[in-house]
Amino acid sequence: MSDAVQSLSRFLPELILMGALAVVIVADLLTQRRPLKNNTDLLNGITLVGLFGALVTSWQALGAVEAQSLFASMLADDGLLGVFRPIFCLTSIVVLLLSMRSKELEGVRLGEMLALLLTVTAALMWMAGSVNLVMIYLSLETVSVASYIMVGYLSSDRLSNEASLKYILFGAVSTGAMLFGLSLLYGMTGTLDLYGVRAALAEGAFGPGLLFVLILIAAGIGFKIAAAPFHFWCPDVYTGAPTPVTAFLSVGPKAAGFAILIRFFYLGLAEPAGGGAIVPVGGADWQMLLMMLAVITMTLGNVAALLQTNVKRLLAYSSIAHAGTMLMAACVLSVDGVQAIAAYLAIYLFMNLGAFAVVILAHRVTGSFEIDSYAGFWKRSPLLTVAMGIFLFSLMGIPPFAGFLAKWYVFAAVINAGLGWLAVIGVLNAAVAAFYYVKILRVMVIDQETGPTPALAFSRLDLGLLVLLVVPNVLGLLFWGSLDRVTEYSQTLLDLG
Amino acid sequence: MESMASAAIFYGVAALVLGSALYVVVGKNLVHSAFALVAAFFGVAVFYVYLGADFLAGAQVLIYVGGILTLLLFGVMLTNQIYNLNLRSGAIQVVPGALSAGLVFALLVWIIQSVDWGAMDAGDPGPTSESIGRLLVGDYLLPFEIASVLLLIALMGAAMLVRRRGSGSS
Predict the structure, then answer these.
(1) Which residues of chain B have a CB within 8 Å of the CB of A149?
(2) How far, in Å, CA of A255 to CA of A85, rounded?
(3) Separation CA A482–CA A487 (nearest Å)
(4) Cβ-Cβ contacts under 8 Å, A18 against chain B
């Protein structure tokens, strides 16, 4: 019991989020009869304060590098959780700001949506900290259930309903597969603790049987990060969901999925081999499994994105391709890979949410998500076009922008690990990706719009949001040194146990 | 002799569970399917008894058979249209489906045969509720609390789904 009380002091961001959740639910009930605008403003304010509180406390917690296990070894509060917590908070803050400007969510009561956003942010943190099979499953399921509801939030919109149903069906199957895999793993090792799993696997070779179990578990994790061949839900759900929710799904759960992937494979299925390197235990070649997933995911995402005409679908396939790039870094089998993934996600957060911010702002005027509707944007709003250009070039990984740094970390880690052929496939994929990102820009700049072209007007919030998202992308290279500190934090991943 | 009887009951119950679960999937009548589900859940409770998990067996009967299924049957019977609905549970892509199901089945059988599960004799089964209770407020306190958060949002989602269209935005 005293362990639980002691753990609370390192559990502050999650506690703040849960407190804000309680306040939002009660405040929503109390202001039910007030005009919609009052109700929404109040709840947005409370949620924003809660998320900011969590961001500040998780930023402070980042200073404490010493790793510690919490709640009887359910969570590990180490550098990995430390790096991921601010990523989740920032994502949710940006998504909240986006939802205030989204045309789709106008005139809709947002009480449940905000409560879900707070819950899912905390659940993402639980995912990133899990070192116990029960915790992995429970936190993943909490994120999933909250996401299903958020996707289907527009109950009068058929596409939103369809997306939610598809998401639930795919989610139920992949979670079922994962749960089955986890139960078999528990049977093999006799323990739920990841460190215990490692110790038990180190004693005997389980070989192909273990590999089958790992494929089942990879189905659950792959569903969360939208890796092929578990990606089928992704384009439809991204298209049907309210766009702020789409933006959230493309960053938050994906990041947490990678945190679980790292924890599960690097802690539970590998032993530290000194110098930050790890060696797989149990006689299953999961490095090969991850490499195959990475190659399929990258290639499929990029090739399918070439054919898209809807910008949300295109960004869905692009997010699949980015998951493939990060999966490459997961094949590295050393802390370098962990560092590359964490740095990639921190940058991906700004470039991808930036692209979605432009999509949402453009939708306010055009009312459409088709790429063709962006014709003539250069004349209508040079500002929006330049912002979109920066986000897309960053997503491509073109040098002056932060996206280049992200790709650099991944490719450096992959090449240093002696996986040159994988890096070559990655570079080819990055070249293919440039085609569809440039396609959007070409429509915005070169194509002429037929009909009237009123200039676009923005509120202060829109401008602030764009600045918030553009600055990290432009000044990314200045953070070269500070991203190296991520290494220091990710080193502590292997400290406990 | 006793173990023979025990094995006979086990396989009998297993056949009951599998058969009724199959009927739930392929049955054309929703009420019949719901009753078949009762049998499947009850059979699983018997398995828990075999494993010496007395508390789980009780909870299974109380929650699934007593709670969820009764509610389900109420829902089905109070809705006239659902009762008359002819479920379209036709099979498509039978061959690829059967092939992949067979493959997974073969793989699982092979794994269950080949892996050393480290099984041990549990000895005489005793009451488990006390140790489950201690674990829930001890080592598994955090998962216990997170489960309550999960249930809370599931409840919110259910309430949101059934809310009449338009009443939320007035």
Answers:
(1) 153, 156-157, 160
(2) 10
(3) 10
(4) 149
Would you call the peptide bond into A229 cis, given omega within 30 degrees of 0 as the criterion?
Answer: yes
Per-residue confidence at B87, pLDDT binned at 50, 70, 90? Answer: low
Contacts of B110 in chain A (CB under 8 A): 209
Tokens of B17: 């569970």
CB within 8 Å of B144: residues ≥ 6 apart: B136, B137
> Which chain A residue has the Cα nearest residue B119?
A187
Assessment of whether the complete model's pTM goes beyond 0.90: yes
Query: What's phi and psi for A276, nearest 5 deg?
Result: 80, 0
For A185, B108, B111, the CA distances from B114, given in Å and listed in that order, are 14, 10, 5
Structure tokens at A170: 């795919």
**What residues contact A24, with CB distance under 8 A and at least 6 apart?**
A43, A46, A47, A50, A111, A114, A115, A118
Asked if the Cβ–Cβ distance from B156 to A115 is below 8 Å, we say yes
Query: How close does chain B come to A1, measured CA to CA in Å?
Result: 6
A129-162: burial string, b at 16+ Cβ within 10 Å, e else: bbbbbbbbbbbbbbbbbbbbbbbbbbbeeeebbb
Distance CA(A320)–CA(A237), nearest Å, equals: 13
Q: What is the ipTM of this complex?
A: 0.89
